[in-house]
Design a protein that fits this description.
Elements (H helix, E strand, L loop, with lengths): L1 E12 L9 E17 L4 E6 L4 E6 L11 H12 L7 E7 L9 H16 L7 H15 L7 H8 L4 E6 L4 E6 L6 E6 L11 H15 L19 H23 L6 H14 L6 H12 L4 E4 L7 E6 L10 E3 L6 E4 L1
Parallel strand pairs: 3-5
Antiparallel strand pairs: 1-2, 1-12, 2-5, 2-6, 3-4, 6-7, 8-10, 8-11, 9-10
Helix pairs in contact: 1-2, 1-3, 2-3, 3-4, 5-6, 6-7
Bound molecules: alpha-D-galactopyranose (GLA).
Length: 341
């Protein structure tokens, strides 16, 4: 028997920059997904998703594709096999206290917890965490059809208590930046509009960024110059403007955190939201309402988190302000880990 836990993540700032070789500043949260695995005889995987009351069963060798949550366990087992890991057949139970589809990265948490649990069951030493993040991101792309970057998986695998993770997605260099909340509160508020990357405009946005690069003759938007956006036709000009301005806000946010100046974060969160709404076009009315509710409650800044088109909003409340009752406080917690094997 082997058990592993992987947290969800909140991205403080740096949205839709990861697949553009840019900068982001996520943190792992305390809630997440726990996966337990026990050996079975035969050659099959039996998977139970406890909260959903649903099951799946598939061959340990070359599992066929599937829709919905089943794509993630099947894809993780298949990708681990393709990377040369010899996995024993197993019965796997998934438990989660993360709301699914709310933009807190329940899918990355599931991939990572499942990978650590079955590798633990196989008695393998823990893999290199950056390599594991890449493997799990192949699951998103090739099995779940979402052409995402490495933000979620790296946050889940490299986050730390009382720290945000400054990520340079070009070099994969990381820096732990102090995120000491003191009397401040960070909270997420579910907009109630569920989101799914594959079905939403997420892939359309990443395709637009690739088109912008082709028009500018550069390899990634990290190489774009500040005045490049204005040379492009709409809406590519706005998409590029968001990516460039968001990278700048990540640098400013990291500087503020290093100096312990949380009061400088709020305006950056607001500016990020405006850019994601107006330039990147990933907000929806329910999200706007959730942002407005946080601002009415006294948030010093609030913005959409994750892929967008629904999901959660992140807000920062100064000491003394009270978040809306339905908001969930979040704080940086430790990264994914094997609990026992
Ligand atoms: C989703 C993706 C990430 C990242 C964000 C947007 O969470 O999984 O890779 O692109 O959207 O910043």
């Amino acid at each position: 028997m082997s058990r592993a836990f992987a947290p969800g993540r909140v991205n403080l700032i740096g949205e839709h920059t990861d697949y553009n070789d840019g900068l982001c500043l996520p943190f792992a949260i305390e809630r997440g997904v726990t996966v337990s695995a026990e050996r079975l005889t035969g050659r099959r995987y039996e998977v139970e998703a406890r909260e959903l009351g649903e099951r799946d069963e598939f061959s340990a060798v070359d599992p066929p594709p599937a829709d919905g949550w089943r794509a993630f366990p099947r894809g993780t087992v298949a990708e681990l096999g393709a990377a040369g890991h010899e996995l024993p057949p197993a019965r796997v139970a998934i438990e989660s206290d993360l709301p699914r589809g709310s933009g807190l990265s329940s899918s990355a948490a599931l991939e990572v917890a499942l990978a650590l649990a079955v590798l633990g069951l196989a008695g393998e030493p823990e893999p290199d965490r950056v390599e594991l993040a890449k493997l799990c991101s192949r699951v998103e792309r090739d099995w779940a059809g979402a052409d995402t970057g490495l933000l979620d998986q790296l946050a889940v695998l490299l986050g730390a208590e009382r720290r945000a993770l400054l990520l340079d997605c070009r070099t994969l260099a990381t820096e732990q930046v102090p995120l000491e909340l003191g009397g401040w509160t960070l909270a997420t508020l579910d907009s109630g509009a569920g989101h799914s990357h594959a079905k939403s405009g997420y892939n359309e946005r990443s395709a637009e960024c690739r088109r912008a690069c082709a028009e500018l003759g550069i390899e990634s938007l990290r190489d774009a110059a500040p005045d490049d956006a204005a040379r492009l036709p709409a809406p590519l000009d706005r998409r590029v403007r968001h990516v460039l301005s968001e990278n700048g806000r990540v640098v400013e946010a990291a500087t503020a955190l290093r100096a312990g100046e949380l009061e400088r974060l709020g305006p950056l969160l607001d500016a990020s939201h405006a850019s994601l709404r107006d330039d990147y076009g990933v907000s929806v009315p329910e999200v706007e309402e959730a942002v407005a509710a946080c601002k009415r409650a006294g948030a010093s800044g609030a913005r959409i988190v994750g892929g967008g088109f629904g999901g959660s909003v992140l807000a920062l409340f100064p000491p003394g302000a009270r978040a809306p009752a339905e908001a969930e406080p979040v704080a940086p917690g430790p990264s994914a880990r094997l609990l026992d094997s």
